[in-house]
Amino acid sequence: MYSQTQLVTTEAARIAKRLFNHWKHKFEVVETEQHFQILMPTATVTLIPQDNTLDVSIQSQLEPAEQTRLEGVVIDHLNRMAQQEFQVTWQQQA
Fold first, then answer.
1. H/E element holding 73?
2. What is the pLDDT of residues 30-88, one digit of tens each?
């Protein structure tokens, strides 16, 4: 499955870096100039900071219900890293 969303923020790079650092102790991670990736056992979370948004995607081998649960985990962590609550609409593709 594939999910994506955009969080409206001017602090995208800071938020992405905080989540990247938070999860690098638990998962393999990849950082480039363009994006941050968290490589989980059954999913890859990609964070792409833009000027006014943080583009978030999840590529996985999960069933739809588990994908939805993972979306919730990712956004909960991003909310904590940003110290604010984002209004999120995920777009899923099988």
1. helix 64-82
2. 999 999 999 999 999 999 999 999 999 999 999 999 999 999 999 999 999 999 999 99
Is there a contact between 64 and 46 (Cβ–Cβ < 8 Å)?
no
Strands (E), 16-84: 28-31, 36-39, 43-49, 53-60
Pairing mode, strands 91-93 and 43-49: unpaired
Mode of pairing for the β-strands spanning 2-8 and 28-31: unpaired
Q: What amino acid occupies position 65?
A: A
Domains of the chain listed by start with CATH number = 2-93 (3.30.310.50)
Angle at alpha carbon of residue 22, lines to 41 and 25, rounded to 5°: 55
Q: Which two tokens stand for residue 48?
A: 């792409």
